[in-house]
Design brief:
Elements: H1 14-25, H2 29-40, H3 44-57, E1 65-70, H4 77-90, E2 95-100, H5 103-107, H6 119-123, E3 127-129, H7 138-154, E4 159-164, H8 170-175, E5 180-185, H9 198-203, E6 206-209, H10 217-231, E7 245-247, H11 256-273, H12 275-302, H13 304-318, H14 324-333
Parallel strand pairs: 1-4, 1-5, 2-3, 2-4, 5-6, 6-7
Bound molecules: guanosine-5'-diphosphate.
Residues 71, 73-79, 210-211, 213, 249-251 line the site of guanosine-5'-diphosphate (GDP).
């Protein structure tokens, strides 16, 4: 494979990529982990091999139920994923757990999808757990998780659970890569709706009030009734689907059958109406656009002339000497000129002067 001998391991040659793809499809766990490591690598030569690998695997992916699991820290996500995963294994399903946690880039370690939080599931032969990729922006983390999902599906996993922290844009990112988005809630006392962000509820295909056990059962039931009432105020994910509100106990592994029944029902309803296929097509196109945006931004920011002018424009906008529109125009005008000196101007050199 091409030059770029920087970094530690060399990129695998083409024949190795084909062997790796075959081993993934043969459900070799080590190959699965290795393939995902390749997909997650930020090195250009690794990325080239990764994209070839994905090309080989893509025709064998897509059959899994893709389920997003969200909820504020402490809602019980890892307890739920362990209990639900074990339930699915009991049904003979193969389960993969992935995660999107952009904060892991800052903290240096991944919190979500950590094996130590799901010890029994992690030990099971038919389960595969992968923590959130920690490198890069939310867009980068999301892309790697999406691509890891393809690898897991090609390795024959029937259900892919994608965990996300219940804050910020990572919810939207996960909702945009799954068929079904589950939001776990706490059986809070009193104003149940206070923590309910409109945006998140509108993404939900089901709500599950967790910790419905011991002396919390009644409170959980009450909360569920309030959520059910309130859901009418929100826009739904599909006109054919009323998001149900369940009460579950992840700790006691109760309600796992109902959660799965709801997911299967959703697949049946949206499958019959064609919405599921439409949704996946739309997700693929949105993914293409997000990659285009990322790529354009990177190419733009890599230009030496942009790097020189940008700080000046930022200052001018901050001091109200230029409007943001004027500053943006001046920066974008650089795209019309061939990129000058130095830094990675590889592609832009081909750009036509305007
Ligand atoms: P996460 O931060 O959303 O992943 O939440 P965890 O799964 O780590 O759970 C947070 C805490 O809530 C832990 O102490 C769990 O033992 C507890 N917990 C999780 N699910 C339940 C449940 O169904 N019932 C009860 N009583 N406690 C639970």
């Amino acid at each position: 494979m091409p030059s770029e001998p920087r970094g530690s391991a060399a990129a695998p040659p083409a024949a190795d990529v084909e062997r790796l793809a075959a081993a993934v499809r043969a459900r070799d766990r080590r190959a699965l982990a290795k393939a995902i490591t390749l997909v997650e690598s930020v090195r250009a030569d690794h990325q080239e091999a990764a994209q070839r690998l994905l090309e080989l695997l893509l025709p064998h992916a897509g059959q899994a139920a893709r389920v997003g699991v969200s909820g504020v820290p402490g809602a019980g996500k890892s307890t739920f994923i362990e209990a639900f995963g074990l339930y699915l294994l009991g049904l003979g399903k193969r389960v993969a757990v992935l995660a999107v946690d952009p904060s892991s880039a800052r903290s240096g370690g991944s919190i979500l999808g950590d094996k130590t939080r799901m010890p029994r599931l992690a030990a099971a032969a038919d389960a595969f757990i992968r923590p959130s990729p920690s490198a890069g922006s939310l867009g980068g983390v999301t892309r790697r998780t999406r691509e890891a999902m393809i690898v897991c599906e090609a390795a024959g996993h029937d259900v892919v659970l994608v965990e996300t922290v219940g804050v910020g844009q990572s919810e939207v990112a996960v909702a945009s890569m799954v068929d079904f988005f589950l939001v776990l809630l706490l059986p809070g006392a009193g104003d149940e709706l206070q923590g309910l962000k409109k945006g998140i509820i509108e993404l939900a295909d089901a709500l599950a009030v967790n910790k419905s056990d011991g002396d919390t059962v009644q409170r959980a039931e009450l909360a569920a009734a309030q959520y059910t009432g309130a859901l009418h105020l929100f826009r739904h994910t599909s006109e054919h689907w009323d998001p149900p509100v369940l009460t579950i106990s992840a700790l006691e592994a109760r309600g796992m059958d109902r959660v799965w029944a709801v997911i299967e029902q959703h697949r049946a309803v949206l499958g019959a109406s064609g919405e599921l296929a439409d949704k996946r097509r739309a997700q693929q196109q949105a993914w293409l656009w997000s990659m285009l945006r990322d790529g354009l931004e990177r190419q733009f920011l890599d230009r030496a002339d942009v790097q020189r002018l940008l700080p000046e424009m930022e200052r001018a906008v901050a001091r109200a000497e230029l409007t943001p529109t004027q500053a943006a125009r001046r920066l974008l005008a650089l795209l019309g000129a061939p990129s000058d000196d130095g830094v990675p101007a590889r592609r832009s050199r081909h750009a036509r002067a305007g």
